[in-house]
Amino acid sequence: MQGHGREVILGVGGGIAAYKSCELLRRLQDHGFLVTVVPTPSSLNFVGTATWEALSGRSVTTEVFQDVHEVRHISLAKLANFIIIAPATADLIARIAQGRADDLLTNVILAASVPILVVPAMHPQMWNDPATTANVATLRSRGISVMEPEVGALTSGDTGQGRFPETANILSAFTEIASSDADLLGKRVLVTAGGTREAIDPIRYIGNNSSGKQGYAIARAALQRGADVTIIAANVALADIAGARTINVRSASEMLIKLREEFSQTDILAMTAAIADARPLQEADAKIKKSDYTKIDLIENPDLLADLASLKKDQIIIAFAAESSHDGAEAQRKLASKGADILYLNDISHGDIFNSETTYGEIFSAQGSVAKVAQTTKDTLAHQLLDQALLQLG
Questions:
Q1: Which of 15, 191, 249, 284 is disulfide-compatible with 254, CB 3.0–4.6 A?
Q2: The domain over range 188-393 is classified in CATH as 3.40.50.10300
């Protein structure tokens, strides 16, 4: 399974321009990309592993036989959405053209089926050598994008075409091959996911069947579009999403505390979590014996959305309603009473919403528009909801 749409492998060749890729890494992160650096062994003569790990926040390996149990060349290839090789030396370009697999980076390139951008940097005579010219033509014939090096002063003291391109030019070329939609760049998206559990005693609780899949789909979609994402997860068994901050909670009260802490710094809130309407009036300190387990006195939980609506400034709130019968009038009423801007109504009468990979229903907006959603994946719905939120953000 590939990454979340914004996973970049930054391959670093063994040239003096390797230090310039530190700036490239930073700018990719500024654009919402998650970067894993795969340097060639010779490139470590210029920039060491510690630097790449500090800048990327991820472990760095250079050889196939490091961390063998992870099968790094395959796991990285599966994770990647894009590969940038910067700088690409004449030797590295030759090895890629020949299909060599003599270090981790060349193995990853062979194993990956993603857009690749090659950024050459070398002496002009090496760039213009017939062997390099032929190798570049080979790469381009295979669909790999190869930038033209820039003209300028070189380390050798010579001047000519072979200089590592400016970071802005690399990013421009990368945008063309990535076709990356970063329309949420600079925005903060807060997502609640899963279902709350209200303790009866240390063993039992009142809960629901929400899996958290729709919330995690929205978090992934927001990450793909460049957002800073935080998930408040209630009893979710799904793996954490790389690049998103996850806060784990158990009950509605715990979720409300965290929502209040995070909401003021949020641009878009997606309230996908299923919140228990009530909780036991008292939580027993010890397991209740079966003979004493005759009734449970309940007290209503706070209305989390209504609470947040009172704190709302310019935020866009996406609410969810799961109903066993389709009632558009009730959806509009909830939309208004909850102080939400968008509400997704899904019909659970056929029992295939919770823990399902698909969904269907209707999207209601505070402006009165209604959009029917035919059966589709939760990932697709996530993007549709974020599109609506962006329209309302202006």
A1: 249
A2: yes
